[in-house]
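Feature request, filed as a ticket because there's no other form

It would be nice if the structure record came with a short human-readable summary line next to the tokens. Right now we just get the raw output. Example of a typical job, pasted below so the devs can see what we mean:
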Amino acid sequence: MMLADMGAEVILIERKSGDSPSPALSAGELSKYAIVHRGKQSLAMDLKKSAAAATLLRLIADADVLIEGFRPGVMEKLGLGPDECLTANPRLVYGRITGWGQDGPLSQCAGHDINYIALAGALYHGGHQAAPPAAPPTLVGDVGGGAMLLTVGLLGALLAAGKSGEGQVVDAAISDGAALMTTLLCGLHQQGLWVDRRQSNLLDGGSHWYDCYECADGTYVSVGALEPRFYRELLQKCGLGDNPELDPQFEQAKWPAQKKIFSELFRSRNRDEWCDLLEGTDACFAPVLSLGEAPRHRHNRARKTFVDIDDVTQPAPAPRFSRTPAEIAGKPPTNGEHTLSILSGAGFSQHEIAALRTQEVI
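Raw output as currently delivered:
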């Protein structure tokens, strides 16, 4: 999706679909909610048919990047492994994304985001002491440690291919990427500045000045006043500037009592009242918004952080470019919507396309 937003022509190879899984919605109506496929073209194929590999290799011969997310070894069985693809296109960047990587004792095992970030050490410190570890769903592993790191790898490999004329394989394991995202915490841990106990550190809700608090209306706000000058700003704005119990800021033994003061404070007003008081200041404050609320916030509206495509609200392209702005090229395609136009554009004759249909490849 990000590559498509940045102007790449992205062809999604997907299974040929049957009936719509929802009797109430057509396939076209369902497809518009597959936001991660925005701006892509869809070519529907049966990869297990004997002519499928040869068909795709003709497309791959003219591609910059191939991305696959199968279990290790599946692409090789389909005749579309790195050897075949790089022979067809020596400049190809072959991106592989899995949970555990292409090798290692767990490489053939099933898993999901929660498992990958657990093994990487990224899940351990999420959540509060009295509850099991928790992390935002899919964000740390699948999206951050997975898709984002794969994208960085692909762009790096494309730069290298542009200079050398040679492509390569990018092995993006979500567990590796999630581990990479803990780098800052690893440094603190090995200095003795981060302990292996949830809600006991500077940035995991252990301190009173870096946590979320419930308001009088049952909603939540976040504070993150790490630096002393921002901490003083927070205290002054909240009318606590002269409270000796909130000094010193970094004495961990006092954090529980100081957190109690903050908890009682924030429960004394509704979230909107706290926003009126603290938003737009250096108190390092923000309301905790739901997915439904975030697009309506004034800052997000001003920056057009969210956009509506086909009546579906979604995040706008990011990051922002000064000369070549990213944009959403189109709504998500229906299954196989572009099969014929893609094959025709790649030089397949009408006779060849008809043969592929007869063989049930497309």
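Something like this underneath would help us a lot:
The radius of gyration is 25 Å.
Residues 139-164 form the longest helix (26 residues).
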